[in-house]
Design brief:
Structural class: alpha+beta
CATH topology: Alpha-Beta Plaits
Radius of gyration: 15 Å
Number of domains: 1
Protein name: Iron-only hydrogenase system regulator
Low-confidence stretches: none
Number of helices: 2
Mean pLDDT: 92
Strand order of the largest sheet: 2-3-1-4
Distance between the termini: 25 Å
Organism: Solidesulfovibrio carbinoliphilus subsp. oakridgensis
């Protein structure tokens, strides 16, 4: 399977209403998440989450699609244009 690496940006309006759903979906796709940073802004009723991911386009699409279907959640992604291949050790 061809894998790609990239970043997903998630903006959450009214996090107190949907953050449980967002966190559950991210956890269900935890095998493709390399890193996560979340910035709450309760004074504006907004939260921002960035994910560093590595996965197939199907795996990444599943994650972003499910997140994007939550009302008040905006999702954008940027992925490498080429697929990843691990270098083999030469002993």
């Amino acid at each position: 399977m061809n894998r790609r690496i990239g970043v997903i940006g998630i903006v959450i309006e009214e996090p107190r209403l949907v953050s449980e759903k967002v966190n559950a979906i991210i956890s269900q796709h935890g095998d493709i998440v390399l890193g996560r940073m979340g910035i709450p802004r309760p004074e504006y009723q907004v939260g921002v989450v960035s994910l560093i991911i590595e996965g197939t386009t199907d795996e990444i699409g599943s994650l972003t699609g499910r997140l994007g279907n939550i009302p008040g959640v905006t999702v954008k992604s940027a992925l490498t244009t080429k697929t990843l291949q691990k270098e083999q050790d030469h002993d």
